[in-house]
TrEMBL record:
Belongs to the glycosyl hydrolase 15 family. InterPro entries: 6-hairpin_glycosidase_sf, 6hp_glycosidase-like_sf, Carb-bd-like_fold, CBM20, GH15-like, Glucoamylase, Glucoamylase_active_site, Glucoamylase_SBD. Substrate binds at W152. GO terms for cellular component: fungal-type vacuole. It is an enzyme of class 3 (hydrolase). SUPFAM superfamilies: Six-hairpin glycosidases, Starch-binding domain-like. This is Glucoamylase. Keywords: Carbohydrate metabolism, Glycoprotein, Glycosidase, Hydrolase, Polysaccharide degradation, Signal. The active site is at D208, E211. GO terms for molecular function: glucan 1,4-alpha-glucosidase activity; starch binding. Residues 1-22 form the signal peptide. One of its GO terms (biological process) is polysaccharide catabolic process. It comes from Lachnellula arida. Its EC number is 3.2.1.3.
């Protein structure tokens, strides 16, 4: 029953809100004013993403078929590479668009499947595909799918999980559309390798999505759980075995440990000087969002109390961090970046995280509406207070337009819209989305035409218009044990090249772990590599030499180190080589060394060396 009186009351409430979110001086637009601009920008964004995908993307000549280039920017910053994470998130967007009805996108999906089947087998500095899947932890490759050998934060363990999620989503569509054998014979072998990797390595540290912090990342763990849980169901549907999926409840158990009582600490098992408040946590919850999930699900959905509490604390840090946010009151959206301590490219807000904040709120509203209720508890109370001051700790059931439930839904939706309005305020007139925008002026900066920025705008715009991917089955995820085991957890993976999808039939040459340790005093900016006769250490081509890490370098011991795999039983000659900071010539050791790799099944060996040869000197660049 509708009363004519109520819409007027609602109109007054929304007028108050639009005033709160749109002080006349700010230039920020209201909801209806952004409807048009959001749909225009979404179309530009879809095209912007497609322009960065080979082989025909207009901005990325030279990229191979199905390879998603992070950005056309080749210098400052150099992003002309294909990252497994960015690619998978972009393809997840494209697969969702395809399922929503844009059938013209299918060829991008087919190209991606082939490209990733091949990529899984490419040997790289993180290791080889066989025998143990280590190469799949490599974060990025050249745009033609060949290895990238530079020093980098590796491994990154979110890539295989995100790729599996994208491919599982497409496989489910194939099953529902009469092509189960394609899902089983062609795509499942790729997914099976990725899930093997997740099951084997989830309980080891790796670099986070920002490629800076080695530890355990909330975003990574949340996606690892979704991949294993969703993979379990696909394996049942296809009547195949998922090696690694049995780890799902243990991963979910671990996921609970990122909450510190006040907010989500996005990186744990680390020693850095950050609070842990990080956009990582918002991105994790939107990429594991499930429209059918219960809000108290341990998968930590957007509508979960801890996710909401974390959202408030995190967003409030950015109110104080960036001067373009000054004067914007609590309860109104701001420009959002990675984390308050960020200094990369000046430490600015990012388009993709600002739109992710909006997407997170649209997701939460959709979940409450689908459940027809909302539980406000002590944990989430502060989040709601900013938006609806009369809120109390209690259950709100859905009701008519005047009910508190609907008023709260409208308030959270208006809050989401205000983040979109902030993003739009700083998008240039031609709709081009860079990575960041200046914290003081709002001008776009860092990599231009960032594929992930475009993909993030598209997914936000779909949620804003009420389109959600179908459930991934969070309700069926196995409940985690009450206490997590303390021993390190792992299921040994099974790795088989996905030949039906186009992977080369690489064979296991049986490799053995070899650790190179060398004492070499270096100046800041100088890097060390190992090079030698084996393919895995560059076959004497310095462009393919294996970069070493200085994580253990101290004033007592100038240690550079790298762990790799070499063919069992082979005799290898090698030496160390210094890369200078200003493109001066490489400096080689003046002696050749040899080692003999143990026979198949042998124990890891550790080479303990000390640099023999010229020292380096910093250039004047
Ligand atoms: C569908 O995808 C094509 C690219 O293949 C794009 O040009 C078009 O705008 C998309 N349509 C919609 C409605 O998003
Ligand atoms: C491994 O899992 C255990 C149990 O959840 C957890 O205590 C530990 O921190 C995890 N370590 C890593 C590196 O994931
Ligand atoms: C949580 O917040 C309360 C109140 O500000 C504070 O006393 C407590 O130390 C905080 N705990 C953590 C782990 O930050
Ligand atoms: C962090 O530092 C503390 C104290 O030095 C040490 O006990 C702990 O093992 C370190 N943790 C990691 C993950 O390095
Ligand atoms: C779009 O505008 C931005 C900012 O003004 C500019 O840097 C960029 O080159 C423009 N892109 C195109 C394709 O015109
Ligand atoms: C790949 O090579 C292995 C080992 O040589 C062989 O057993 C297998 O049949 C090959 N697979 C394909 C698809 O050719
Ligand atoms: C070391 O081996 C490389 C590759 O075979 C060769 O080019 C070089 O001359 C050798 N150097 C010494 C000092 O033996
Ligand atoms: C490397 O340095 C450490 C610490 O000074 C020393 O104990 C070790 O013997 C050195 N290794 C070699 C091969 O010289």
């Amino acid at each position: 029953m509708q009363f004519h009186f109520y819409p007027i009351a609602v109109a007054i409430v929304s007028l108050l809100f639009s005033q709160a979110i749109a002080p006349p001086s700010s230039g920020i637009k209201s909801r209806t004013a952004i409807d048009d601009s959001v749909s225009k920008q979404a179309a530009i964004s879809l095209q912007g993403a497609l322009n960065n995908i080979g082989p025909d993307g207009s901005e990325v000549p030279g990229a191979g078929a199905g390879f998603v280039v992070a950005s056309p920017s080749k210098v400052d910053p150099p992003y002309f590479y294909t990252w497994t994470r960015d690619s998978a998130l972009t393809l997840k967007m494209i697969i969702d668009e395809f399922i929503f009805g844009n059938t013209s996108l299918q060829s991008y999906i087919e190209d991606y499947i082939h490209a990733q089947a091949v990529l899984q087998t490419v040997s790289n500095p993180s290791g080889t595909f066989l025998p143990a899947g280590l190469g799949m932890g490599e974060p990025k490759y050249q745009v033609d799918g060949t290895r990238f050998n530079g020093a980098w934060g590796r491994p990154q363990r979110d890539g295989p999980a995100l790729r599996a999620i994208a491919l599982i989503t497409y496989s489910n569509w194939l099953i529902e559309n009469g092509q189960p054998s394609k899902a089983k014979d062609i795509i499942w072998p790729i997914i099976a390798n990725d899930l093997s990797y997740v099951g084997q390595y989830w309980n080891q540290t790796g670099f986070d999505l920002w490629e800076e912090t080695q530890g355990s990342s909330f975003f990574t763990v949340q996606n690892q759980h979704r991949a294993l849980a969703q993979g379990t169901q696909l394996a049942e549907d296809l009547r195949v075995t998922c090696t690694g999926c049995v780890q799902a409840p243990e991963v979910l158990c671990f996921l609970q440990s990122f909450w510190n009582g006040n907010f989500t600490v996005s990186n744990i098992n680390v020693n850095n000087s950050r609070t842990g408040l990080d956009g990582n946590s918002i991105l994790g919850s939107i990429s594991t969002f499930d429209i059918d999930a219960y809000c108290d699900s341990p998968t930590l959905q957007p509508c979960h109390s801890t996710s909401l509490a974390n959202f408030k604390v995190l967003i409030d840090t950015f109110r104080e961090t960036y001067s373009i946010n000054s004067g914007i009151p609590v309860g109104s959206g701001v420009a959002v970046g990675r984390y308050a301590e960020d200094v990369y490219q000046g430490g600015n807000p990012w388009y993709l995280i600002t739109t992710a904040a909006a997407e997170f709120l649209y997701d939460a509203v959709a979940q409450w509406k689908a459940r027809h209720n909302l539980f406000v508890d002590e944990t989430s109370l502060a989040f709601f207070k900013d938006l609806y001051p009369a809120v109390q700790v209690r259950q709100y059931n859905s009701g008519n337009a005047h009910s508190p439930f609907v008023e709260i839904m409208n308030a959270v939706t208006a809050y989401a819209d205000s983040f979109v309005a902030v993003a739009e305020k700083y998008i240039p007139a031609n709709g081009s989305l860079a990575e960041q925008f200046n914290r003081d002026t709002g001008a776009p900066l860092s990599a231009i035409d960032l594929t992930w920025s475009y993909a993030a705008f598209v997914t936000m715009s779909q949620r804003r218009s009420g389109r959600f991917p179908r459930s991934w089955g969070s309700r069926n995820a196995i409940t985690p044990p009450a206490t997590c085991p303390t021993s390190s957890l792992s299921t040994k993976g099974i790795y088989v090249p996905a030949t039906a999808a186009g992977a080369p039939n690489v064979t296991s040459s049986c490799q053995v772990n070899v650790v190179f340790n060398v004492n070499a005093s270096t100046y800041f900016g100088e890097n060390l590599y190992v090079i030698g006769s084996a393919e895995d250490i560059g076959a004497w081509d310095v462009e393919n030499a294996l970069p070493m890490g200085a994580g253990g370098y101290t004033s007592d011991r100038p240690l550079w180190s790298v762990s790799t795999y070499l063919d069992a039983g082979e005799t290898v000659s090698y030496k160390y080589v210094r890369q200078e900071n200003c493109n001066q010539a490489w400096l080689y050791e003046t002696r050749n060394r040899t080692l003999t790799v143990p026979a198949c099944g042998g124990d890891a060996i550790m080479q303990e060396d000390a640099w023999v040869g010229p020292g380096g000197a910093a250039g004047t660049c």
